[in-house]
Amino acid sequence: MDSIHKGWFSERGELWPGQALSLEIEEVLHDVKSKYQHITIYQTKTWGRMMTIDGNIQVTERDEFSYQEMMAHVPMFLHPSPKRVLVIGGGDGGVLREIVKHPEVEQVTICEIDDVVIDTCKRFLPSLACGFDHPKVRVEIGDGFQFLRNHPNSFDVIVTDAPDPIGPGVSLFQRDFFALIHSALREGGVVCQQAESIWLDLPLIRDIVGYCAALFPAVNYGIVQIPTYPCGSIGLLVCSKTPGADVTVAARAPTPEQQALLRYYNHPVHAGAFAIPQFARVAVDEA
Ligand code: SAM
């Protein structure tokens, strides 16, 4: 594997030329090619187990909670009563694990294109894939774009735990995709989409914020700290169908029991995530 040199894995993505994040690895635990992508599980020296897809870091056990908690709980606490939830992508199970911490959820459907990701994570990343074990979870193997076409007006919350806009993930950043999300949400529905890095992807961010601003009455862009994603943070694109909604203000706070289960999300962090640096704020507001 040319991403490994003298015991160090380096993430050299074509979407972030001229830079790489390197982690020292102890062992390659699993390496498999599915119909869609190349999936590898490493034992790293200091970040726990790590999954890469096509050489790009998807999760490490040490920092995954920041991403999973914010992707799930920002939209879930924005909705007054989220009963039906859809996760697109997210085959590691981490977002599911967080969503089922909300007792009002009646059913959470995950539409993941690649069953090999799910099987691999069940075997090697059980602390994330435990999300699949919950009785409210229903699994659909297929393309999220196609799934949305067949499910108008069906969900209170949609979380798009997408990969980078490359390979099978390209369709999850297109204008038509957001139109399908909008029509799959019920009245008052909320979507949270993985929305790349303010340091690397401002043109893409401007595009997708613009697509959503043309569809939803409330749209904003926040940031989550996550050391092992490119440049150390990742964006959340959050939209609500409720006119006049402010997605920086959660409709509900975690109960003490819920908060005890969370390591990153809390009420102030929800609001604070949307305080973004001026260069990014200008790009988002111009979109
Ligand atoms: N948290 C990761 C990150 O930001 O790097 C992304 C999570 S990763 C588990 C994304 C998942 O989306 C992958 O398992 C991939 O198979 C799935 N995926 C890619 N394209 C998809 C599509 N069109 N429909 C549904 N799932 C898709």
Automatic annotation (TrEMBL):
Cellular component, GO, one term: cytosol
The organism's place on the tree of life at top rank: Eukaryota
Pfam families noted in UniProt: Spermine_synt_N, Spermine_synth
Any GO MF annotation of the entry: spermidine synthase activity
Active-site residues annotated for this sequence: 161 (proton acceptor)
Keywords: Polyamine biosynthesis, Transferase
GO terms, biological process: spermidine biosynthetic process
Domain spans labelled PABS: 6-241
HAMAP family: Spermidine_synth (MF_00198)
Family to which the UniProt record says this protein belongs: Belongs to the spermidine/spermine synthase family.
NCBIfam families: MFS_SpdSyn, PRK00811.1, speE
Full protein name: Spermidine synthase
